[in-house]
Structures are given as C-alpha cells and as structure tokens.
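User: I want to check something. If I give you two sequences, will you return the structure for each one separately, not as a complex?

Assistant: Yes, each is folded on its own. Here is the first sequence with its structure:
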Amino acid sequence: MAGRVAPPKQQPRRRILQTALELVADGGYEALQVRAISERAGVSSRTIYANFQSLDSLLIVAVAEQSQPLYRRFTESPPRGRTAAARVDRLIADLTATMTANRALTVALLRALLSGKRDVSQYVHGFGGVLQTMLASAIAPDGATNRDREIAELLEGVWFAALVGWAAGSSSDADIARVMQRASRLLLPAS
C-alpha cells in the first residue's frame, strides 16, 4: 500500500543491549558471546565493539539502562516507614527481591562488575553511587546530611558483599535481609 510507512527498525545499539540481556537471562554469563550477540541482533562484531569496549561493559550498560525506571522510582519516592531503619529495610527488601528474581542475570552482572577490567571501573562506581543515593533518600527523605550519605555508603558496601555471598551460593535471600537489618540497626538511630 503506497504511503504506508514501515515502523522504524530498532537501533543496533538497542538490539545489542536487548540481545545481551536475553542471552544472559537464558544461559548465564557464559552465553554472553560476541558471535551469539552478533547473529541474534543482526549486527557485526565490529558494531558491537564500536559501541562497547568489552562484553562486561555491554552487560552492565544493558542492566543499568533497563533498571533506570526502578532507580528513579526508589530515589524520587523512597519507601515509607516510621524510622530510617524501617525505610532502609523496605528498600533493601525490594532491591534484593529484584536482584534475586533472575539468578543467571544477577550472577552475570556481578561477574562483570567484579571482572577487574579497566573499562568496567566507571560502572562499578556508577552502580555504587546510584545505590548510595537510593539509600540516602530512604534514610532521610527530606534531604540527606553528610552523615546520612556516609551511612548510605557503608550500607551499600554491606549489601553488595551480601549479594556476592548470595551469588556464590554461600547465603540466601533471607541471609541478605538479616545482615542488612543488623547493619541498619547498628548504623541508624532507633527513632
């Protein structure tokens, strides 16, 4: 039919990111291979490397971009609760449920973040900063002080370590919650 315009084809970068998420969700970190991404996304390996320095950075960017609405929601509308500890516990419970919902994807993300590759360090810092901002918003919804941000930084480190333990199989979702509740109780005022 003349005059009918076909829908725009998804941009190569978006196809690469979506394909990486699908491969990892189905097959774990080992499924993240240039050839598989190239074939499934319909792009060349050159296109992949023109957009991403490494497969680890590709995966991290894919997860980060997919998670933007979640980050925004938790930062703009922190969990409700009478105390900072209650709000942090709610936030951590929600984040942990999200992260543990797809074990293969979360383990792959952690492997990428912990790869030690130079191009990945900026993303490690970025993930930490986003989590610290969400925690600071939960601690002090009306505006965090320097102390609140320092506590958020410590809690972020504890949560990340607990998540790594979960990914390694040495702890459960419930263990993450217990560790975080203990850390909140020790670091945050009772009222």
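And separately, the second sequence with its own structure:
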Amino acid sequence: MLLGIIPFVGGLGLPELMIFAVIVLVVFGNRIPGTMRSLGQSIVEFKKGTSDAEDSNEDVAKDS
C-alpha cells in the first residue's frame, strides 16, 4: 500500500501543493490562529525559563 503512494509524492508540483494548502486552510482555518497564539506563548515561557535558569546559575557562580 505504501509503495503505491511513494511515486506520487515525487510528482507533487507547485499547483498540487497550492491546492493542498487551500484545502488545509479551509478545513483547519479557524484553529490556526489559536494554535499559533499558543505556540508563541510557549516560546515566550521557554525563553523566560531559560533566562531565569541562566540568572540563577550566575548568582550561584558569584556566591562561590
């Protein structure tokens, strides 16, 4: 079954990818903004956590 799909993947061009993108936007369009917002908040929290860890490491190094 999978071997029948692999040759098709090599034949994807720009028009096929554009059609696929439009279909994905129509099906999942209302979920994309919320997902991107959550992703952005996660990145901000990760950066805060890493900067806090760096700050605490610098404080420990100064105390030693």
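Because they were folded independently, the notes below concern the second chain alone. The chain has a mean pLDDT of 81. The chain is about 90% helix and 0% strand.
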